[in-house]
Design a protein that fits this description.
145 residues; mainly beta; five-stranded antiparallel β-sheet
Length: 145
């Protein structure tokens, strides 16, 4: 009996065929259609100005939904200016007891709290909203809480 060796290393890829019945599952070497380029539904803002008053500032984030609040992720960057090459810091930022900026979220809002160094000044922030996708299940090797 002649054995088909087209699957050996360095061999040609076989022809794409329709799924059959019975037999064991093999690898699918048929190219699928090109998927859309995207960012997994990530939402991001421009650089926006905030001004601290009494160590607090608030920013409207209308796309910050309850679903993102409960199942997604919010990332915030903070900068003293938006000039090219300017430093931006991912919040929560802490340098010392007087130099820090923190944030917390509520539906539709990003709330900021700052130490003395940043009080009563105008700064820039940019936020990224990452909706939750598939809930991670605990695997057999994971330990509970």
């Amino acid at each position: 009996m002649h054995e088909n060796r087209s699957r050996r290393a360095g061999g040609r890829a076989g022809r794409c065929r329709r799924p059959g019945t019975g037999g064991r599952q093999g690898s699918d070497r048929c190219p699928g259609p090109q998927g859309a380029t995207g960012t997994a539904n990530v939402i991001y803002s421009d650089w926006l100005q905030i001004k601290f008053v009494d160590f607090k500032a608030q920013l409207d984030a209308p796309k910050l939904t309850d679903q993102i609040h409960e199942q997604g992720e919010v990332v915030v960057f903070f900068a003293t200016n938006t000039a090219p090459g300017a430093s931006a810091y991912r919040l929560n930022y802490y340098a010392n007891p007087l130099t820090w900026v923190s944030f917390y979220i509520t539906v539709g809002k990003i709330n900021f709290i700052a130490g003395d160094t940043y009080n009563t000044h105008t700064y820039y922030v940019r936020y990224i909203l990452i909706p939750g996708g598939v809930h991670a299940r605990r695997g057999s090797g994971d330990r509970p809480g």
